[in-house]
Amino acid sequence: MTSHHPTPPADRALAGFTVDLTTHEVLRRAQVMAALGQDWDPVEVLRGEEAAYGLLYSGLDEAQQRLYDDLVAAGVLPGGGRAAA
Q1: pTM score, two decimals?
Q2: Which of 12, 21, 64, 72 fits 79 for a cystine, CB–CB 3.0-4.6 Å?
C-alpha cells in the first residue's frame, strides 16, 4: 500500500511557492464597494442596526424580562441587564 503523502527522494529539494494576493484583494474590495453603490452610508447603516437592536428586546412582559436578565447575567446576551422599554 502506498502513502498518500510520499516523501520526496533525498536528491530532490522542495521548491518554494508563494502567491501574492494583493491585486486580487484590491479587486475584491473594489467590487464590494461597487456593489454597495454610491448611496451607501455606513453611519446610517450603523444607526439602523443600533435601532433594530434596541427594538429586539423591547416590550417584554415580566417573565420575558426576567429571562432576558438571566441570560445577560449568565453572559449569553450582551447588555446592561434591562431591555429597552
Answers
A1: 0.46
A2: 72
